[in-house]
Amino acid sequence: MENFSIPKLPLDDWIDAGLDFLTENFAFLTKNISEYLEKIINFIIDSLIFFPPWVIIILFALIAWRLSGRQVALFTLIGFAFLWNLRLWEPTIETLTLVIVATFIAVLISIPIGVLAAISKKAYRIIMPLLDFMQTMPAFVYLIPAIPFFGLGSVSAIFSTVIFAMPPTIRLTCLGIKQVPKELIEAADAFGSTKRQKLFKLQLPLAIPTIMAGINQTIMLALSMVVIAAMIGAGGLGGEVWRAIQRLQPGMGFQAGIAIVILAMILDRITQKIGQKN
Amino acid sequence: MAKIKTVKLTKIFGPSPKRALTLLSQGKTKDEIFNQTGLAVALVDVSFEVQAGEILVVMGLSGSGKSSLIRCLNRLIEPTQGKVFIDGEDITNLDHNALLELRRHKFGMVFQHFALFPHRNVCHNVEYGLEIQHKDKAFRREKACQILKLVGLEGWEEAMPSQLSGGMQQRVGLARALAIEPDILLMDEAFNALDPLIRDEMQNELISLQNRIKKTIIFITHNLDEALKMGDRVVLMREGQIVQIGTPNEIITAPADDYVKRFVKNVDKCKLLTAQSIQVPAVVAYSDDAPRTVFDKMQTESLSTIFIVKRDNTLQGIVQIGSVKTAVSRGDKSIASLINSELPTVTATEPLTTLISILAKWHWPVPVVDEKHQLQGIVINTGVLAALAKKE
Ligand SMILES: Nc1ncnc2c1ncn2[C@@H]1O[C@H](COP(=O)(O)OP(=O)(O)O)[C@@H](O)[C@H]1O
Ligand SMILES: [Mg+2]
Q1: In angstroms, rounded to a whole number, what is the distance separating the alpha carbons of residues B10 and B83?
Q2: Residues of chain B with CATH 3.10.580.10
Q3: What is the distance between the alpha carbons of residues B89 and B92, in angstroms, rounded to a whole number?
Q4: A192 vs B101: CB contact, 8 Å cut-off?
Q5: Which residue of A has its CA nearest to B110?
Q6: Distance CA B273, CA B389 (A)
Q7: In this predicted model, what pLDDT tens digit does every residue of B332-373 receive, in sequence order?
Q8: Rounded Cα–Cα distance for residues B308 and A222 (Å)
Q9: Which of A132, B224, B335, B385 is deepest in the core (most CB within 10 A)?
Q10: What's the distance, Cα to Cα, between the start and end of chain B in Å?
Q11: For B48-73, what is each residue's pLDDT tens digit?
């Protein structure tokens, strides 16, 4: 049997070799970035925890009010108060910070890529299959290569979260721009608009609701990935779940799980309405 | 020099359009070419000129190439072959930047479905063209307000387009086009999406606006009544080709072929025929003629009345054969005392409807005069009836 089988393609070895090469040559750079980013993240977490929880809770409720109205604000208030009561305030803040930072970076990268995919057919043909690939790959595979570059901890978590959470914003930015009616593009052209003027004065503003829907999905994906990233030491609510698994404590596990669901709902409600308003 | 001139403009949609050019030169029709190659022939050898200040209406059924034609003028669509001259300059070879400059300053475009920017309020829509030109804010604002006033939308500056009725939206569309002070207005079925009453109102307003601003206007429509009302001249298109170019009068009185005739058949002639198209040359007598001369002229022409003009053709009035006869027998030296100068007059552009109501009360021919009161011709009641009866 062994003798007749076709030799195995050493795909794993190739990938390892590729990653080794990248690690050897770029790890010094990524480790530097990692150090700074870690400092920033810790600073945010520390400052949020420095204040009494009720201050932060009211602050978030106000933000929710501004962005999405009274109902969502009330929901935010009650939700966070509940998490505080469960004595999960610190892990909640850790998770929230990771989600916000990862989303921020993901959106910053995704929108230009989405725009590129929308205006260049060639770019579209390269980017879309890549997105399919990124989204089908099981999420925690991204964790493995992150470690040699960024070390164990929150930065690796953010790195894999960014990769995992980018696709919806890229896709929906692209879609939002392509959805701008041809008539309007023609009108802009008739007045002698340059490509850049069309993009900033017409296409992007009209795509905002769609892009916001993408960002909303990115936030949800980021949250799920940040939880998984507890496996490589990201802490937060995911860390609580992870610990419960290791100690076989279902009560504690579910409690942390429910906390994650509540956090997800708060984030979803706040960001869902932003796009709809316009 | 013509403001706009096209020379053998041809547009074919589809990959490697040159294939269709060969087939066209072999005399193949649009349909044959489409079946054979999948290429859509939109324009074939379209040549015409538009003078500054003129309203040229392009008219034809849907799919006849009107939109393609208007878009070739500012190269929103690239012509496959042929040339477009704006103010004598061939614009088919302009590079991208020069083309943008041309669009920014020469052309204002108005669209069938308005194409207003939904995220900008009325004022910012109107400012768009100036913003693109990097004009400063105060200037833009002032210009926009001024133009909005011109189109009757003062006080709506802050409204969003979705809050406006169709007619008002198209006023914004028009204002947006006018704000850049273009020489040329391109209007692609601009009023066809509006209710008939609003459309009529907009047509009248555009005509009166045009009297003040004197733009060169290319106005597309598939509605003949609108074409004849708006156009100084009308271009009739069919399957990408020009069938007839002419004044509204020429189109209805002398349709070039059956295609045009079919369009013209249902036109309300009372509104469209004018004194000019049914007037006949007048036999006149001069105010210094002796009664005898006038009488003889009337006898030979067998007229019961005759119009009297001065030697420079200025209309003086009308005289009856009976009074001339009396004057002759009395031995009068002049006809001055016989002239009835209280008579209705019309100008060449007077529509048939007015002529009919005049002829209901006035039983003699109606003189057609120009602005200097010089006699151009006369309208007789049989002429009106003949025009109405004439069915092509
Ligand atoms: N972008 C396009 N691609 C392919 N064919 C087109 C395109 N635009 C117009 N055509 C074809 O060209 C012809 C003329 O169309 P158009 O200029 O829009 O006519 P109109 O404005 O008179 O209705 C039609 O047969 C139409 O199908
Ligand atoms: Mg059209």
Answers
A1: 9
A2: 276-389
A3: 9
A4: yes
A5: A187
A6: 12
A7: 888 888 888 888 988 888 888 888 888 888 888 999 998 888
A8: 96
A9: B335
A10: 36
A11: 999 999 999 999 999 999 999 999 99
Q: How far apart are CA B337 and CA B339, in angstroms?
A: 6
> A interface mutation test: which of B109, B135, B174 has the most A CBs within 10 A?
B109
A67 in Cβ contact with A232 (< 8 Å): no
Q: Give the number of residues written for chain B.
A: 392
Are the Cβ atoms of A186 and B103 closer than 8 angstroms?
no
The count of domains in chain A is 1
Q: How many other β-carbons are positioned within 10 Å of the β-carbon of residue B199? A: 21
Among B13, B188, B223, B259, residue to substitute to test ligand 1 (most atoms within 8 Å of Cβ): B13
Say yes or no: domain B1-93+232-267 is CATH 3.30.559.30: no
Which residues does ligand 1 sit against, CB inside 6 Å?
Answer: B 13, 40, 42, 60, 62-68
Structure tokens at A166: 């980018």
Paired strand residues for B49: B5
The answer to whether the beta carbons of residues A192 and B102 sit under 8 Å apart is yes
Report residue B122 CA to chain centroid gap: 29
Q: DSSP label at B191?
A: T
Question: CATH code at A33?
Answer: 1.10.3720.10
Distance between CA B375 and CA B284 in Å, rounded? 9
- Rounded to whole angstroms, the Cα distance separating A153 from A160 reads 11
Rounded CA Rg of chain B: 27
| Partners of residue A207 in chain B, C-beta under 8 Å | none
Interface of B with A in 102-131 (CB under 8 A): 102-105, 107, 109, 111, 113, 115, 117-119, 128-129, 131
Q: List CB contacts of B48: < 8 A, sequence separation 6 or more.
A: B5, B6, B56, B235, B242, B245
Of A186, A193, A205, nearest to B132 by CB-CB distance is: A193
CA atoms of A217 and A172, how far apart (whole Å): 10
CA nearest ligand 1 atom 1, residue: B13
B113 contacts A183? CB cut-off 8 A: yes
Tokens of B225: 């009544």
Closest chain B residue to A200, measured at CA: B132
Tell me yes or no: is domain B276-389 CATH 1.10.3720.10.
Answer: no
State in Å: Cα B222 to ligand 2 middle.
9
